[in-house]
Amino acid sequence: MIEKMVKVRVVCSRSSTEKAVDALYEFGAIQITRSRQGTPDLPMPSFEEFSKSLIALRAAEKSLGLKETAAFEELAPAHILLKEAHELEAELTGVSEAEKKLSELRSEQSSLASRARELEPFTAVPLNPKLFDATNRATLLYFKPSNAKEFLVAAGKLRLDAAMLRHGNADYALVAVDSRKAGDTERELAKHGTRLTAPKATAASFQAAFDAAKADLESVKAKQKTQSEFLAEFATKHGKQITRVRTQLEEHAKKAELPNKFGRSTFVEIIEGWVPEKVFAKMQADMSDATGEKVMVERIGVREQPPTMLSNPPLIRRFEFLVRFFSLPQSGEVDPTLFIGVAFPIFFGMILGDIGYGALAVIMAIYLRLKAKAEFLKDIGGMLFLSAVSTIFFGIIYGEFFGAESIFGTPLPRLLERNAEGVNTLMVISLAAGVIHLTVGYLIGVYVNWNHDRKHAYAKLSWLALMWSLVLVVLTQVGVINPALTLVFGAIALIAVVSLYRLEGVPAVVEIPSLLSNVMSYLRLMALGMSGVILAQIINQIPVGTAFSTLSASVSAGFELVAFLTALATFIAFAALFIVAQGMALVLGLFESGIQSLRLQYVEFFSKFYHGGGAAFAPLRNTNNLSKSR
What we know:
Blueprint: E1 5-13, H1 17-27, E2 31-33, E3 39-40, H2 46-64, H3 78-119, E4 138-145, H4 148-157, E5 162-167, E6 170-178, H5 182-189, E7 193-196, H6 206-257, E8 263-264, E9 268-276, H7 280-290, E10 295-299, H8 314-317, H9 320-326, H10 337-352, H11 355-371, H12 375-398, E11 406-407, E12 410-411, H13 423-449, H14 454-477, H15 486-504, H16 506-510, H17 512-520, H18 524-539, H19 544-556, H20 561-605, H21 624-628
Antiparallel strand pairs: 1-9, 1-10, 2-9, 3-8, 4-6, 4-7, 5-6, 8-9, 11-12
Helix pairs in contact: 1-7, 2-3, 2-6, 3-6, 10-12, 10-18, 10-20, 11-12, 13-14, 14-15, 18-20, 19-20
C-alpha cells in the first residue's frame, strides 16, 4: 500500500533554528522541500568548516582505495568529529606526498619500460651503438624479417651481406649499405621485414644499455612498492577512522545545509516538507520538546503530488523493488506490490514446476538472504524463496524431479501431464490464470478511476464485460455452458463494444484485438514450461547410469587396469556433462521463468490500471519513525 503523506510547515524563531534542525534530523522521517515563504536562508556557518574537512577526507579515501561507508547508530558531536578530522589531516600530509611520489614513479616506470622495449631487439647486435649513426660512407640497417630465408634472398639480389642474428624466438637481420643507396635499399628490404630504428645509447653495447634500463626499472618498482606499502599500512591503521569521520561529517554537513531550503523573515524561520501522516503527531511533540514549545507545526494544503512511500508486510515487501524498477505509483493509485507478490511466484512456479530445480532454488535463495550484503540481492533472495516454494508445489502437481518422473527410482504421482496428452488441460489452466489476472487488473482500474474519472471507470467495466462475454461464448461452444446462452453472451459483447465506442471512441474499437492477444499471452505459462521439460528430458538421456553400470561391471568382473580406467573416464565425463547441463538448464529456467512472469505483470497486468511516475520519499535519514509508518 501507499503510505498517506501530509505537507507540513514548521515555524520557529530564528534563534531556535539550530534546535529545530537537530530535532528534525533526530525525527528523520521528513522530506524537506524548499519553502515558498520568506526569502531563502543560508547554510549554517559550520557548513564551510565541514566542507573543508570532507574534501580532505574524501581525497584521502580515494588515494587509499577506501570504498566502504561506515554504519553508525548515534551521530557523534560535531566538535569531536572536527577535532578528529583536523588530527587526521595533519597525518594525511604524508599520504599526499606518497601519492605524488607514486605518480612520478609510475611515469618514470612507463618511460623506462618503453626504453627497455626499444633496446631489447638490439641486444643481439655485438656492436657499439655509435656505429648506427649514419656516415657519408655507410649506414647500418636493422630489420625484423617476416621470413628469414626470403629476406636473405632479397638481400642477395641487392648484392648485400645480411648478418642474421637471433634473440629469443625472433630472427633479426643486420645490413651495412652505402649511405647514398640507403633509402632505396631500405624500401626494397622493407618488403620482406620491418625496419627497426636504433635507440640512442651511450653505453659500450646495446646489451649494457638494456641491462641498465632494466636495473633502473627494478629500482623504480622497488620505490613504488615502498610507497604502496606505506599507503597500505596507513589505510590499515587509519582507514576505518577516516571512513567513520567522513560518514558522520557528511551527516553534519547535510544538517548544516538544510537552512538553504528554509524560508526566513526578520524574526522567524519557515520549514516545509512531507511526512507520513501516521507520525505527524509525534513530529509535533518532538519539535515542541526540542525548542521549548517555541515552534508551530501545522498541516498545509497543496495541490502538488506528494512523494511516494510504499508500506507492505515483510513477506510482500521484498517485491517492492520490482515496482520501483518499473515506476513508483502516484498518490491516488493502487500499490501493485501485493498483487505482484501473489501472482509472480505462482506464474514462476507454473513455468518451472520441478521439485529438484525448486529445491536448488530454495538453497540459492537462503544463501542470498544470509550472505548477500546488498539490499537488492537480499530482496532477490526473498523473491526467489517464495518462487522456489511455488516451483516445488507445482513440481509435485506435475510429478517432475529434474525433468524425470521419479525420485531415485520411486515413481511420482502426477496430477497434471506436461506432455502432448496434457496440452489441452494446460492451455485451459494458463488461459484461466490470464483471465483471472486481467480481471483483477480491470477491477483495480475501476476502483482507481471511480472517484475522479467516472467515464474511464465505466470504460474499464466495459473492457471487463467484453472479455468475460467472449470467454463465456467460447465456453458455450465447447459445451461447458448451455449453448442456448450463446446469443445472450454475444449480445453482452456487442453492448460492451458499443459502450467502448461511446466512452473512448474509435481507438478503443481498434484495440479490441489486443484484448485477445493479452489473454493469449498467458499461454507462455504452458509453452515455456513444456519446453523446459523437453530440455530436461534430453539432458536425462545422457547415459550416466549406463556408464556407472559398466564401471561397476569392470570392477566386479576382475580388475583390468585398461578396462577400469576407460570405464572410469567414461563415467566421469558423462557425469560432469550431466551436472553442467542440468546447471545450465536450472539457470535458463530461473531466468526464463522470472523474465516471463515479470513481463505478464508489466505488460498485461499494469496496462489495465497503472500509470506510475511517482517520486520516491527521501527522508532526512532512516529512523524508527519510518518503521512505525510501515
